[in-house]
Amino acid sequence: MTTPALRRPALVAAALLATSALLGGCSSAGTSASAAGSSAADPSSAAGSGTRAVEGARGTTEVPAAPQRVVVLEPVQLDTAVALGVVPVGAAVVSATAGVPAYLGVGDRVEPVGTVSEPDLEAIAALAPDLVLGTEARHSELYDQLSQIAPTVFQGSQTDPWQDSVRLVGEALGEAEAATAALAEYTDRCEQVRTAHPTDGTTAQLVRPRDETTLSLYSPTSFAGSTIECVGLTIPEREWAQGIQTDISPEQVSQAAADLVLVTAADPADPAAVPAAITANAADFPRVVPVDTSWWISGVGPLGGQKVLDDLDRILSAGS
Question: Which of 172, 184, 234, 280 lies 20 to 30 Å (CA to CA) from residue 131?
Fold first, then answer.
């Protein structure tokens, strides 16, 4: 798919020139504090702060020692940055309609810059970032252009183990210790939920209705799947052709059968949140619970992980 950036080369070139002129007048654009998320550059705040070498999917990149104006292109990068107290000035979003996930509480401080599949280079350049985070698997063709805007660090893929992505974001932001601490809090919370509920031997499956013809099932290596299993639930074994998920048709819905089936929905309270294929086969699905897509699917990271664990704690308490 051709990105908006590639469809508007002249406009992007102009934006890059304008950004270069802006950045040429200061050692590094920034704000007075990492968590401010302001769109107004403060040339003095990062002056003399130096750089650090960060190893990403494209090799070693010199990044600001304390980046102030960060743009992120992946959900895990957005969630992690906010968790570490560095509110990005811009973020590519999963859905242009939904925008920045509300659970993060920073929607009014983060400018959307296209979608994760089609970032908008014009919008990114206009924010004069001092660091851009993206993904090789999704954004490789944009790397050279992004690097002209700001130092750019890519993780390998959106299917990388999410904890590894959290660590990379922490390293890029100069918050490696905080990232390690956030992951430790997640692990501790997993253990708390597991200890509180008798989950051994109980199967669970996460189902994401894509459209009328497709249901996605999530594997133990996915963000949500790994969180399901970290509390002691077991995702039924199967071949996971796509790694973190596999797709089935409504006619194959029995493949999603489990003791507990979690169905993602934009509005879990909507009576239509559960697909008809599941309700029509109630015998295969003894317990079905709708859950919020914005953190079960889009909320990859320490904050989304805590929200998923809160849901699992509530669901398991209600079922005991």
Answer: 184
Integer Cα distance of 282 and 84 in angstroms? 43
pLDDT digits (tens, 9 = 90+) for 6-61: 444 444 444 444 444 444 443 333 333 333 343 334 433 433 469 999 999 999 99
Bridge partners of residue 261, in order along the sequence? 205, 288
Q: For the chain, give me the number of helices (H) and strands (E)?
A: 12, 12
pLDDT in tens, 56-100: 999 999 999 999 999 999 999 999 999 999 999 999 999 888 899
Residue 41 CB-density burial (10 A; 0-12 exposed, 13-18 middle, 19+ buried)? buried
Give the CB-side neighbour count of residue 85, counting CA atoms within 13 A.
11
Sheet strands (E) in the chain? 51-56, 59-64, 70-72, 90-93, 111-115, 131-135, 152-155, 204-209, 215-218, 245-248, 260-265, 288-292
The CA distances from residue 315 to 98, 166, 307, in Å, are 26, 27, 12
Other Cβ atoms closer than 10 A to 204: 24
pTM: 0.84
- The strand pairing partners of 56, in sequence order, are 59
Query: Residue 66's Cα: distance from chain center in Å?
Result: 22
